[in-house]
Amino acid sequence: MLAFKLLFLLCLFNFAESCLKIRYPGPPKCECSSLLLNGGAYEEYDGTGVIPSVGSIITAPPVLVLEDEDCAVSMYCESDLELLVFDTDKTYEFLNYPADGMCDPYTQKWKMGDNEGSLITVNRLYGICWKLLNQQPPVTPAPEKKCNACSMDGIIRDMGVSAILINYEEKENSDGCKAATVTCSVADGWDCPNLNVSALVGPTVYKISQQFSENFASSVLTCSDDGQYTIGDLKPTSVWCDAPICSPKTNEPGCNSCDMAALEDTLPFGVEFQYMEDTPTAEGCLRVYAYCHRTDALICHDTEINAHNPDGMWPIATEKTEAAAATTLTCAADGKFYYDNK
């Protein structure tokens, strides 16, 4: 009985000693590459030339904080310096932000967050802090003004209508910019009512007359800074003169050719008829002030000046007394006197 127990214990002991032991090793040590640069030491790593080779610059090594057995990293610059990280094939500009990340112990590469919140892989963390001294903002040159470079050549168009004449005059204003005055007029012997200065802007035709009268129109175009003539908000590509209708003038006697003596009729006894030139019309046409009066002592209850035309006899006196009457007549282009269109 004793022998059996001893044998059993011996077998049990040998079985325990023969069990297989499995060991699980921890992750490799974090040995990702990092280097703090200063002075001119960065030049061999700055392959893209981020830091200018000319001008006054200041550099300083960044602050490097490693934690969790060198697996967590934070690299940043103090003051107002900006952080640059030189990788093996790229330069990262963190500016005034820190470069925070973790070392991957299996690849020995840094996993970093960039300025945009994206995760990037960095082979090495070689950093420097820097800034450019006396940095001036870039000066943007003012756009060149071309307001004296406009030309009417290629814009002005003669439509080939003999009755319509087009002219233009270009001159420089006090501000140094050019302006062009376009004038439309009518040739002698023609009538062109509703004469206009017209302009083509894109596919649309505009009437751009600024001053106009019978048989005349004009407009002023201003040269803008882009070297194109404008009128208001329009930039015409063509300018010309036009009128809906042009017709030859008729050979009329004119409004100064009327003969008052030819109108005198036989006067009653004791009546005298006289006339004199009055103030001309605005168009320069002849006006006559005519009056008649009694030369005796007779008193009339009604006085009148009568005029004959193809439609009959018409009273035309505008001023009347017991012994006199007067009126004003206007000479028209057909060489005839008119009163109230009669």
Number of E-state strands: 27
Q: Note the main sheet.
A: 5 strands, mixed
Which regions have little confidence, pLDDT < 50, spanning 5+ residues? 1-18
Helix tally equals 1
Q: Which range best describes the helical content: under 10%, 10-25%, 25-40%, 40-55%, 55-70% or over 70%?
A: under 10%
CA distance, first residue to last residue: 169 Å
Order of helices and strands: HEEEEEEEEEEEEEEEEEEEEEEEEEEE
Topology:
Elements: H1 2-17, E1 33-36, E2 57-60, E3 63-67, E4 72-76, E5 82-86, E6 91-95, E7 99-104, E8 109-113, E9 119-122, E10 124-132, E11 164-172, E12 178-186, E13 190-191, E14 196-201, E15 204-207, E16 211-213, E17 216-223, E18 229-230, E19 238-242, E20 247-248, E21 271-277, E22 287-294, E23 306-309, E24 312-315, E25 319-320, E26 324-331, E27 337-338
Parallel strand pairs: 1-10
Antiparallel strand pairs: 2-10, 3-4, 4-7, 5-6, 5-10, 7-8, 8-9, 11-12, 12-17, 13-20, 14-15, 14-19, 16-17, 17-18, 21-22, 22-26, 23-24, 25-26, 26-27
Please give a structural write-up.
With 342 residues, the protein is mainly beta. The chain folds into three domains: 33-132, no CATH class; 164-248; 260-338, no CATH class. It is built from one helix and 27 strands. The protein has one helix at residues 2-17, and strands at residues 33-36, 57-60, 63-67, 72-76, 82-86, 91-95, 99-104, 109-113, 119-122, 124-132, 164-172, 178-186, 190-191, 196-201, 204-207, 211-213, 216-223, 229-230, 238-242, 247-248, 271-277, 287-294, 306-309, 312-315, 319-320, 324-331, 337-338. Strands 1, 2, 5, 6 and 10 form a five-stranded mixed sheet that branches. The longest helix has 16 residues, at 2-17. It starts with a helix and ends with a strand. It holds the Pfam family DUF281. Keywords: Signal. Residues 1-18 form the signal peptide.
